[in-house]
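Renewal narrative, Specific Aim 1. Our central claim is that a sequence can be written position by position from structural information alone. The example that follows is taken directly from our test logs and has not been curated for this report. It begins with the structure tokens describing the chain, in the order in which they were read.
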């Protein structure tokens, strides 16, 4: 994500003086709630596992998850690029290509 976008999210919050409400507990709850709203799009979709006709709604709910995630990172002083890169390194060691390619098993079962 571009720093410009992160700054816009933080400015939006700060212009409204909402930082006072954005403690880690409430941000974690908000991330979970927005993720549930994303999941709700797929509820009762049967064999339609992509819900392409609902792409706009998927984008809206995913944006909410990302926005709250940016706010959570800010609350902890975390650099999103840094934490994602560290997690990708960890995932790479848990899921080496030679064992994980084409396999949906959890790393402990590889």
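The sequence written for that structure reads:
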């Amino acid at each position: 994500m571009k720093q410009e976008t992160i700054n816009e999210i933080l400015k939006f919050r700060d212009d409204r003086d909402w930082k006072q409400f954005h403690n880690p507990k409430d941000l974690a709850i908000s991330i979970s709630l927005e993720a549930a709203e994303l999941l709700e799009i797929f509820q009762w979709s049967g064999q339609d596992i992509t819900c392409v006709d609902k792409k706009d709604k998927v984008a809206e709910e995913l944006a909410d998850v990302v926005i709250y995630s940016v706010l959570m990172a800010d609350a902890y002083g975390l650099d999103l690029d840094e934490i994602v890169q560290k997690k990708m390194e960890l995932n790479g060691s848990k899921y080496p290509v030679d064992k994980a390619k084409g396999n949906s098993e959890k790393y402990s079962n590889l």
